[in-house]
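Write out this protein's structure.
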Amino acid sequence: YFLFNNLHFDDLHRKNFFFRRIFFVSIAILMVPSFIIKLIEVRGSMALNYDQIIFNEVPFCHLVIPIVIIPLLLTKSIIFPAKLYGSYASFYVIIFIWLISTLIVGKGWCSWVCFYGGWDDGFSRFSKRSFLNFNYENPKIKYFSFIMLIFMILASLITLTSAYCEWFCPFKLVTEFANINSFSTYIATIIFIILFFSLVVFLPIITRKRIQCTYFCPLGAFQSLLDYINPYKIKIDYSKCIKCFKCVRECPMNSISRNIIENKIENPFINCSKCGVCINNCPVKAISLEFIFMKYENENIFVKFFNKIKEKNKFYIIQKIIYMFYELFSPMASFTFAGYLLGYIIGTAFGIDTIKRFINFFF
């Protein structure tokens, strides 16, 4: 279609970002039934028991990677009761997938790969307008995720336990939790319920922002710091920008603020998860995804050469084919392909299992 028409591939790339949310939220929704049913089949319930903790049979959760890695480097001890290898959610398997994903998409993990992120991403789009606006430029709010990360690491180092999992994880409500057999586990369960409905459901709905992923997730803050090693960056072209501030209103991570636009800062705040919402919503196409080590433009010497051929009406189809391959290797295309592929690898097993179970149940 693009080969024989004058439509630019840029339109297709922007549509990829539009469909990302559908893909991302679908993975999050489909993951939960599969995970819970498998737990019930193996354990008889969602609750962890003493034997599973003692024998390291708890699926390793990627949200606690920074909380586990720092104590591991300092104490040479893994403070999470998971198998090291030999299962789909063992420590080394998850760490390997996370490392590869971080090198390829960086902070994009939070908007393309992490199935938990699909929850508040979905709820943040429930309303067409926000009912509550935070002062996002306030440093106490802007840097809260990093404060949370430091606090969780220190708490885990002091107690040599995964403090986030035991007390602060909102997703315990839809995955697994400690057996409620003491006052502390009872209090922890209440905290889990409050955090899930406030950070994942209620606040995203009324703010249209991903509150859990932006301000509370320790891995999200860690990914923001590691994103410096990733070659893909969102860039704002102020020669095109008309300062409509639509990107500010639509950004679910509060990565683009009025201050950034007014001061003509080229890149969003470091917590940008490269979800592409700003790219898809910019009316003048002033926002794009680029490689940091090279300037990738739609026109270069290679393309101009074939444009001259086109002007002479020679080898038109060949020129279009070459241009098509050139576009397919652009940052917009290569990043979205990597994002979809990694999200597929992480979430598809759960998704397919859930769909199969529904089909078997109803038919």
